[in-house]
Design goal:
The complex is a heterodimer of chains A (114) and B (115). Chain A has no helices and eleven strands. With 114 residues, chain A is mainly β.
Chain lengths: 114, 115
């Protein structure tokens, strides 16, 4: 299954399928991007990050793709499991004067059906 | 390593009362953040500390919210007096360790309900 985080905030997939969560970021000067997973009643949990000098980075069952041309970020989860059910946030990090600020996307809720 | 600790986990108060939240960041992390998260939304930064100095408090409602990090480690966030719209989860995060200066690690949050 696939979703656009800003327009379709809920993604429902079958257990075992691959999930793709999309995010459009706003600042062309952003140079660091992070995906967080937030389960109900918990704080956001770091999943994977990518710097702007890369276009792909892989972790355990997760892959992040970065397309700077269209300012698009995606998170791919392979063989989605019930434990992956959560809200996923993308965040971009850019310089703001003498400080670096983390700008959060709206979040996409992933529901995994057994 | 131990994660970010927060307390209490839940708090229910009446409007116009005061409340305080406590945060202990990951050991060695110089930067500490307080966020407010409304249900269904991403976290909103309230204040950012670098050691014991304030780096960014532009979105902190200073007429009622205050925060301090006196010794550059633990931090407290206070609301006085609370309003109904302050009902939210208050998240503490820290960064600056081996994960790099930009990677923020979050605590479990304090869920505040204002009646």
């Amino acid at each position: 299954g696939e979703s656009v985080g800003l327009h379709l905030p809920t993604l429902s997939v079958q257990e075992g399928d691959n999930s793709i969560i999309n995010c459009a970021y706003s600042n062309s000067a952003s140079d660091y991007f992070i995906w967080y997973k937030q389960e109900s009643g918990k704080g956001p949990q770091f999943i994977i990050d990518i710097r702007s000098n890369m276009d792909k980075r892989q972790g355990q069952r997760v892959t992040v793709l970065l397309n700077k041309t269209v300012k698009h970020l995606s998170l791919q989860i392979a063989a989605t499991q019930p434990g992956d059910s959560a809200v996923y946030f993308c965040a971009e990090n850019a310089d703001a004067g003498n400080n670096r600020k983390l700008i959060w996307g709206l979040g996409t809720s992933l529901a995994v059906n057994p | 390593e131990a994660g970010v600790a927060q307390s209490p986990r839940y708090k229910i108060i009446e409007k116009r009362q005061s409340v305080a939240f406590w945060c202990n960041p990951i050991s060695g992390h110089a930067t500490l953040y307080w966020y407010q998260q409304i249900l269904g939304q991403g976290p909103k930064l309230l204040i950012q500390f670098q050691n014991n100095g304030v780096v960014d408090d532009s979105q902190l409602p200073k007429d009622r919210f205050s925060a301090e990090r006196l010794k550059g480690v633990d931090s407290t966030l206070k609301i006085q007096p609370a309003k109904l719209e302050d009902s939210a989860v208050y998240l503490c995060a820290s960064s600056g360790g081996t994960g790099g200066p930009d990677t923020q690690y979050f605590g479990p949050g304090t869920r505040l309900t204002v009646l």
